[in-house]
C-alpha cells in the first residue's frame, strides 16, 4: 500500500475493529439479541473509518505543521511577550471552538436550571453556558501560557502540576457541590479534537527550536496543564457566580 491515504484508511479500520468486536460479542453472546439495523451499522462503520482517516490526514497536513512552524518562527523572533500572547490566544480559541465543550456547557446549563441554580429561561441558560465556555477557554489559554513558560525556563513538568493539584485539593471543599463534577470533567472535555493537536505541535515545535531543550522531555506535558487548569477556574466560577 504505497498510497498514504489508503494506508491510513486501513489503519483506521484496524483501530475500530476492537470496538466493533466488543459490541458484537456482547450483543450476540451475552445479551443474546440480534444486531439491529445491520445495514446501518455497516454504513456507519464505513463513515467512521472515513472520518477518522480524513481527520488524521488533516492533522498531519495542516495543524501539526502549522503549530510547529509558528513555534519555530516565534523562537527565532525572540519576543517573549508575543510568544506568550500567541500561546494564550491559541489555547483560548482552540478551547472555545471545541464541540464537546459546547455540548457539555449546554447540558450543564439545563441541569443547573432544573436544579434551581439559575432561572428556567433560555436567556439564563445561554448566559450560564457561555460563561462556562469562556471560563474553560480562559483556563486553557492560561494553561498553555504556563506550559510554554515552563519550556522556556526549563522547569520540570511536575513542579506546576503538583502546585495545580494542590490548588484543586484546597478549593474542592469550598466549591459548590453542583459545580465540582463539572469542574473535574471540564479539563478532559476541553482537551479534545482541536486543542490537543495544536497544543502538542506548539510544544514540540518550540522545544525543537530552542537550543538545549529536548522535544521528548520538554515538548510534551502541555496537555496536563490544559486538563488541570479548568478544574481550578470552573470551581472558582461556581464559587463567585
Task: Write up what this structure looks like.
By secondary structure, the protein is mainly alpha-helical. 83% of the residues lie in helices and 0% in strands.
The succession of helices and strands, N to C, reads: HHHHHHHHHH
How is the main sheet built?
Answer: none
Determine Rg (CA atoms, Å): 21 Å
Distance between the termini: 57 Å
The coarse overall form would be: globular
| Total DSSP helices | 10
Model regions low in confidence, pLDDT < 50 over at least 5 residues: none
Helix content: over 70%
Name the assembly state: single chain
Strand content: under 5%
Mean pLDDT comes to: 83
The secondary structure category is mainly alpha
Summarize the structure.
The protein is built from ten helices and no strands.
Layout of secondary structure:
Blueprint: H1 4-30, H2 38-77, H3 80-96, H4 99-114, H5 122-153, H6 158-171, H7 177-190, H8 195-209, H9 215-219, H10 222-240
Short descriptors:
10 helices
Amino acid at each position: 500500500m504505497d498510497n498514504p491515504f489508503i494506508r491510513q484508511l486501513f489503519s483506521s479500520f484496524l483501530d475500530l475493529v476492537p470496538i466493533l468486536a466488543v459490541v458484537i460479542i456482547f450483543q450476540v453472546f451475552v445479551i443474546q439479541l440480534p444486531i439491529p439495523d445491520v445495514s446501518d451499522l455497516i454504513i456507519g462503520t464505513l463513515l467512521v473509518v472515513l472520518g477518522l482517516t480524513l481527520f488524521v490526514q488533516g492533522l498531519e497536513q495542516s495543524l501539526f505543521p502549522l503549530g510547529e512552524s509558528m513555534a519555530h518562527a516565534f523562537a527565532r523572533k525572540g519576543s517573549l511577550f508575543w510568544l506568550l500572547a500567541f500561546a494564550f490566544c491559541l489555547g483560548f480559541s482552540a478551547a472555545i471552538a471545541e464541540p464537546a465543550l459546547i455540548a457539555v456547557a449546554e447540558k450543564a446549563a439545563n441541569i443547573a436550571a432544573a436544579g434551581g441554580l439559575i432561572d428556567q429561561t433560555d436567556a439564563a441558560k445561554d448566559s450560564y453556558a457561555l460563561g462556562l465556555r469562556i471560563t474553560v477557554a480562559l483556563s486553557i489559554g492560561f494553561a498553555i501560557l504556563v506550559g510554554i513558560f515552563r519550556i522556556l525556563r526549563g522547569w520540570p513538568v511536575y513542579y506546576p502540576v503538583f502546585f495545580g493539584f494542590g490548588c484543586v485539593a484546597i478549593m474542592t471543599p469550598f466549591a459548590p457541590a453542583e459545580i465540582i463534577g463539572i469542574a473535574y470533567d471540564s479539563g478532559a472535555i476541553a482537551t479534545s479534537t482541536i486543542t490537543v493537536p495544536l497544543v502538542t505541535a506548539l510544544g514540540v515545535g518550540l522545544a525543537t527550536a530552542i537550543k538545549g531543550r529536548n522535544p521528548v522531555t520538554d515538548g510534551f506535558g502541555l496537555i496536563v496543564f490544559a486538563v488541570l487548569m479548568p478544574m481550578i477556574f470552573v470551581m472558582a466560577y461556581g464559587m463567585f457566580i
